[in-house]
Amino acid sequence: MVVRLQRYNQDLIDEFRKTFFDKYPTGHEDFDPRDIQRVKKYDKYLYNVLIISKSNVDVAVEKLEKILKWRKEFEINDLTWDSFNDEFKTVGPLYCRGRDKQNCRILWFRVKHSKKGDPELTRQAKKFIAFWLEKLQWEDFDNPVVIVQDMTGAGVSNMDLDVIRFLIGALELYFPALCEMLYIYEMPWILNAIWKIIEKLLSEESKAHLKFLKAKDVMSCFEADQLPPHMGGTDTYEWSYPPPEQFRDLEDDPEEEEEEEEDEDESEDTKMHSILEADRSADEISPDARNRPGTSGKSMPPMPSKEGGDTLKSTENIPLNEDPDVAVKKVHFADDSERNKEEVGESQRSKEKANESLENKENAAPSQSSVKAKSKKKATIAKKKKMKEVHVGPLISTRPGESLIFKPTGNKNNPKELKSTFTVSNMTDSKVAYKVKTTSPDKYRVRPSSGHINQEASVVIEIIYLGGESEQVVRDKFLVLSTELGDEIVRSTAQLMEFWRTVSKSTVVEHRLKCMCETPPEALVTNHDILKELHILTKKVSKFEEDRQRSTSKTGTSLQLIVVLQFILICIMLYAMFTSQPSEILQDSCYKAGSQLPKLTL
């Protein structure tokens, strides 16, 4: 399931937005200006990108770049109902109706109304899917959707693999954290093999969002009044065009933009007022600020306090095995005083129309703080790059300093086995004890996992991933603990374990290492092979379907011919019976009449 945090980590969102606009201060030619404005205005949109990025700002910036480029290439902001032909609008292959038991909106995908083969039709189908997902995304940020791919009455001719792959890709990246679950209802047996190959292309996380439903299972996810009759429900709704009011084009309402501008002005006023009042909690957001267009008037989740007292410390926002306090500090690129100057400056700029006489004074402070923040940001990035290869701590140094790269070992008995090594060096004038821990101890073999290092000495630690899906490696982390050994004499593993049990935690230094997986050339070929196999299997299934239809047609023709022959044979028999009976009757009657005549004697 999609992890949805109970409240925003506003600091993380601010850092995300700042990092993005530091890289693209004036936007980019590959980005639609309307999307850039959304990035500036809507915290919830950035929040959703952070969700699919595991709260990693650098990853989130990369994903946002891909999303914005794709949106412009696909002309998402220009899609309207008039962009599609009458078949898409009237037949209703996609429409939104009802909610599941988790109160998620339901997007119905009636596969039997799809057709494959025509490239232009496939392109239109992809855009129609994106059109609906876009409407649902901006209609209500706080409410995810579930997609029911109804396979009732569908066959091979309706199964367009390009459209299915596009749908999955859109849900994984281009519409972040929108889909809670993709249900496949009543998958025909003839398509099972195709779906099994499609599943190989999905990550483990995506597979968790995919569920196959039979008719007997559907009631566990949906109420009867939310299902159509062919699924055992009571909802007799049929799609018709024009659509319901909430799904009509935004252009149909000329007052939409004016209302948005008014709401934005009021929300900026409220923001300035909340910043200037030091005692006011950031959770107190005005109703106008909460009811922005595109959110169906639903209130946004409460923001954490700027003072830090109410800052989110959920483990969903913090890397594994990391202190919440440390994680919170990581999101500050500028100090609190500079942050406050920027926020006050932004708030003052929103009052320019009412206070034109103070314009120069209000713009001077934020410009200076902005320069300071940018310079500090660049220094931080440069420092990170320098520290990437080697991490130097107070007791030990580790090489590599941030990430462990796992590579295939070439073990024929276990081809999925991966290996990584890193070096730990003593940076002090005395002996140092070290210990290596991981979030998934059952998956890894660490040699040596603990020990001590003499002055100016080093030790190479080997980590072997015992097997499984390579995508799982990036979810794990390693923690290297170190402390001065002092005068302690450690000669056995038992003594070392006893030392770690009794050592004071205040003297232990921790350093975390992320995991990365190097993709071997064979893995790059694997996806190609899978796609090739999928293409071959699709051809075989199509040929099988054609042969089956041809055989059915021949069988029907043969049955018709047999029926006709039987009818002709019956007609011949009846004709023969009726044509032979009159002569026999006539002969019989003549014989009887002659036998009754009296004999004449002369």
Report the total helices.
16
Measured between the Cα atoms of the first and last residue, the distance is: 123 Å
- Name the quaternary structure: single chain
Low-confidence stretches: 251-262, 264-374, 379-387, 521-525
Shape: elongated
What is the CATH domain class of the domain at 83-248?
Alpha Beta
Could you tell me the strand content as a percent range?
5-15%
Secondary structure: number of strands:
15
| Major sheet size, sense and barrel closure | 10 strands, mixed
Radius of gyration: 36 Å
> And the CATH topology of the domain at 83-248?
Phosphatidylinositol Transfer Protein Sec14p
Write the layout of secondary structure elements.
Layout: H1 10-23, H2 33-41, H3 43-52, H4 57-73, H5 86-91, E1 94-99, E2 105-110, H6 119-139, E3 145-150, H7 161-174, E4 179-185, H8 192-200, H9 204-207, E5 210-213, H10 256-276, H11 287-290, H12 324-330, H13 336-349, H14 359-386, E6 391-392, E7 396-399, E8 403-408, E9 418-426, E10 432-438, E11 444-447, E12 450-453, E13 458-465, E14 477-484, H15 493-502, E15 509-517, H16 521-596
Parallel strand pairs: 2-3, 3-4, 4-5, 8-15
Antiparallel strand pairs: 1-2, 6-7, 7-9, 8-9, 9-13, 10-12, 10-14, 11-13, 14-15
Helix pairs in contact: 1-3, 1-4, 3-4, 6-7, 8-16, 10-13, 13-14
Biased composition (Acidic residues): 250-268
Keywords: Membrane, Transmembrane, Transmembrane helix
Transmembrane segments: 558-578
